[in-house]
Design goal:
By secondary structure, this protein is an alpha+beta fold. It is 36% helix and 21% strand. The chain is built from 13 helices and 16 strands. Strands 1, 2, 3, 4, 5, 6, 14, 15 and 16 form a 9-stranded mixed β-sheet that branches. The longest helix is centred in the last third of the chain and has 22 residues. The protein is elongated. The two termini are 28 Å apart. The relative contact order is 0.19. The structure holds glyoxylic acid (GLV) and manganese (II) ion (2 copies).
Length: 428
């Protein structure tokens, strides 16, 4: 594949400055990280800042019914845009790069295109999608799920968060329940720049990850109902101990992942015990299980084994155990021609690169069924992410953004008028 795109370079310093400015909203003191859980006041303030930047670039801004925000730069022709984007919500212990990079790099690409006085044939768009993290309102990738028509808007608006608020109420409260239709017509193509969030690129000293797909994700919330009782007087064989059952579940899924071997991973990330007192047997436990695998059959097998274990455990611990699915996404493979574009753009720019599959969920995986899609990864220091100490070197941010620019320009094609101006040596 030969790139027809002219050389444009993004402003790496401006990208880092914008990442820092966004991270100052919801800043986690003493770190580079931020906490902007979806649809909170901090999320609203982050959104407002990015919208201001979109306005400064003169983009046409649309906000849809689930609060996805898309900024579009018109092309010489109408029609579906070449879109990039990601998310700006964070987990509670968020870093400054996860999601934010893909959005702010998109702004830099558009800024570079404007500064070079280039008109593309297709429009260029950059979006940020609501509640990608799903930590407050599961499932993850909620906004892109609705955008691409995989989940009806009404269903999404009714989702109740971990704090009892609903998506619809919170969207209205922060002023981001827009009127643009969703599902929305698919873009011409979608490309997402993101930090790897894992250790492969950093360990191997490679700058660009050419992302071939995303592994499958299964989230469940498990509730154990037992009976609270005195911790000193209740004989061990007379307990209905929800705390013990919760601990057994955590051990079971950990051992399951070890038994299956890589790439199976299993995590118990949230445990709540009631009444949560030192001298009381816990009456209730609510915990989450996150299981992922690139092989959907193996992921289903892991789910089945967990279900069977919960049945046995309920009998053994004399408790009632129920499980609710919070998210289930099959593994996704990106379009080969888009994977090739990432590989070629990295090669053209002289950047080291390798293919890899994403361990984390991303908005791009929701676009994969509706338009040609792929992702670009840049290294994460020591593979640390969902942690305020998440870090990516500025030169890697810039390299990833330049790969993004090249692919977007190639896909959008330079309009004839720009080519004529270029040929005539028009100064920009
Ligand atoms: C989303 O960011 C996930 O992978 O959990
Ligand atoms: Mn992310
Ligand atoms: Mn994340």
């Amino acid at each position: 594949m030969i790139s027809m795109a002219p050389e444009i370079s993004v402003d790496g310093r401006s990208l880092s400055d914008r990442l820092a400015a966004l991270a100052s909203i919801g800043e986690i003191e003493g770190t580079d990280g931020a906490c902007r859980l979806a649809l909170t006041d901090e999320d609203r303030a982050g959104r407002d800042l990015v919208v201001t930047w979109m306005q400064d670039l003169g983009l046409d801004i649309s906000i849809d019914g689930i609060g996805n925000v898309i900024g579009t730069l018109a092309g010489a022709t109408e029609g579906p845009p070449v879109m990039c984007g990601s998310h700006i919500d964070t987990v509670r212990t968020g870093g400054r790069y996860d999601g934010n990079l893909g959005v702010l790099a998109g702004l830099q690409v558009i800024e570079a295109v404007k500064q070079a006085n280039i008109t593309t044939r297709r429009p260029l768009a950059v979006g940020f999608f609501t509640d990608e993290e799903g930590s407050r309102f599961p499932p993850d990738m909620l906004g892109s799920l609705v955008y691409t028509g995989e989940l009806p808007l009404e269903e999404a608006l009714d989702i109740v968060g971990t704090d009892g608020a609903t998506v619809g109420e919170e969207l209205s409260r922060i002023g981001y329940r827009g009127s643009a239709p969703c599902p929305s017509p698919p873009p011409h193509a979608f490309i997402e720049l993101h930090i790897e969030q894992g250790p492969i690129l950093d360990t191997e000293g490679i700058v660009i990850g050419v992302v071939t797909g995303v592994q499958g994700i299964s989230w469940a919330e498990i509730t154990v109902a037992g009976q609270s009782n005195h911790a000193g007087t209740t004989p061990m064989n007379m307990r209905h101990d929800a705390g013990w059952a919760a601990a057994r579940i955590a051990v079971f899924v950990h051992e399951l992942a070890e038994k299956f071997g890589p790439p199976q991973v299993c995590t118990v990330g949230r445990v709540e015990l009631h009444p949560n007192l030192v001298n009381v047997v816990a009456s209730d436990a609510v915990l989450t299980v996150d299981m992922r695998n690139t092989n959907d059959n193996l992921l289903t097998e892991a789910e089945n084994r967990l279900a069977a274990f919960l049945k046995e455990l309920a009998a053994e611990s004399d408790t009632e155990i129920t499980s609710r699915c919070l998210a289930r996404f099959a593994p996704v493979e990106f379009a080969p021609e888009m994977i090739d574009r990432v590989e070629q753009a990295a090669a053209d720019l002289g950047l080291s690169h390798r293919q890899l599959c994403s361990g984390a969920g991303h908005d791009a995986q929701m676009f994969a069924p509706v338009c040609p899609t792929s992702m670009i990864f840049v290294p994460s220091w020591k593979g640390i992410s969902h942690n305020p100490f998440e870090h990516t070197e500025p030169e890697h941010l810039e390299a990833g953004a330049n790969v993004l620019a090249r692919i977007m320009l190639d896909l959008a094609e330079i309009a004839e008028t720009s080519k004529i101006e270029e040929a005539a040596g028009v100064q920009v």
